[in-house]
Amino acid sequence: MTADTSWIVTVFADNLRELLLASPLGRKRVMALDPGFRTGAKLVCLDAQGKLLHATTIYPTLSARQSQEAGQIVVKLCEKYQVEAVAIGNGTAGRETEAFVRGLNPAADMIITMVDESGASIYSASEIARAEFPDHDLTVRGAVSIGRRLQDHQHG
After folding, report:
1. Residue 57 contacts by C-beta under 8 Å, 6 or more apart in sequence?
2. What's the pLDDT tens digit per position in 51-70?
3. Second-level CATH architecture of 6-151
């Protein structure tokens, strides 16, 4: 490592320290979205212990009609499952999905935050995830991982 590249290690270490020292959300009911443009956003609702309650796909970024339908679904599910926080993966279409959720004018105390997706695909393809969710594909398992990371940031 050279002096020119040592700053990369320092930045990485600082970011990792910040992540590990951050307070997790804890036992809250969470809606998690794994965003995507063409393939839609995988949406899951989790109870306060991280148990999967609902899974679906919405298309908030394709057309005005599909965005409106997606908004109705999000609002309905937030009410049904008494969602306290929304976790949005920070990958492709993440910012657009965050703007979409915020545009629905959720309750003032609703927590809406971006969550680091790094490693979520590794968990979603793991034997542990397949055993826990044998009837769901890896995209749903990835969304579950995003939601659980908000509840406890040290989750896979």
Report:
1. 39, 40, 41, 42, 43, 139
2. 999 999 999 999 999 999 99
3. 2-Layer Sandwich (3.30)
